[in-house]
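Renewal narrative, Specific Aim 1. Our central claim is that a sequence can be written position by position from structural information alone. The example that follows is taken directly from our test logs and has not been curated for this report. It begins with the structure tokens describing the chain, in the order in which they were read.
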């Protein structure tokens, strides 16, 4: 659906261009989740929103979306493996929110094109 598209390649490039955010210390809010916890939560929220907005999706399409999202989260875990268990900084939080929104946009576009 999206993993084999140019948009996903561009998204991975965007991640690599912003890796410095994960290499330097930053401000951490008290009680901040770990990088991985935040990634999983924000991506899951966006997937639920996607499915709520696209009620026309059948079970097979929803399953495909979940499988691909699992692949995206796995890719993020691999790239960010050295920091996934560290508390997320304010800057990292903003980036992860934006990244998850871009992932949702990729799926929104794919769903619209398949309709």
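The sequence written for that structure reads:
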């Amino acid at each position: 659906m999206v993993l084999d598209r140019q948009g996903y390649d561009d998204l991975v490039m965007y991640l690599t261009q912003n890796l410095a955010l994960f290499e330097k210390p930053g401000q951490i809010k008290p009680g901040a989740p770990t990088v991985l916890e935040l990634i999983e939560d924000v991506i899951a929220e966006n997937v639920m929103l996607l499915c709520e907005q696209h009620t026309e999706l059948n079970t097979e399409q929803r399953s495909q979306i979940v499988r691909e999202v699992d692949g995206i989260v796995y890719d993020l875990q691999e790239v960010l493996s050295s920091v996934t268990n560290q508390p997320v900084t304010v800057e990292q939080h903003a980036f992860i929110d934006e990244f998850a929104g871009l992932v949702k946009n990729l799926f929104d576009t794919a769903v619209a094109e398949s309709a």
